[in-house]
Amino acid sequence: MSDVTRGLLDTSVIIDHPKIDISLLPEESAVSVITVAELAAGPLDTDDNAERARRQETLQWVAATWDPLPFDAAAARAYGRVFAAVRGVGRTPRSRFADLLIAATAIANDLPLYTRNPSDFFGLGDLLHIVTV
Asked: What pTM does this model have?
C-alpha cells in the first residue's frame, strides 16, 4: 500500500501557489484542462501590463509542469452528478460552471480536489473529497 498523496489542483491553488505551504499539497498533483483554459483567459482579462505578464508566466509554468487531465466522457458523466448535487442544495450550477467542470474531472479520475475556495464546491461533499489549502 502506498502512502503517496495524489490530487487535482484547483485553479485557485495554481494562482496562489507561491503563497502556499507545499506540505499542504499532494505529492503527486494534476491539473485539469479547464484550469489551463481559465489561465489562458487570465492575461486577456487585465489592462495592467505587469499583471498580464505575471498571469502569462503562470500559464507557461503550468504548461511546462503538467500534462492536463482532459474533460472526457467520464468527466461529462460525472458532471451530471455534480450538477444535480449543486441544484440539490439550492445553488445555481451555471454560476460556477468552470469550478464544477474541474470537480467533475476530479471525480472522473478518482482524485481529491485541492482548493483555496471550498465554498465554490459546496454541496459536493458526498461526491468528492475536497481538501482546503
From this structure: 0.94
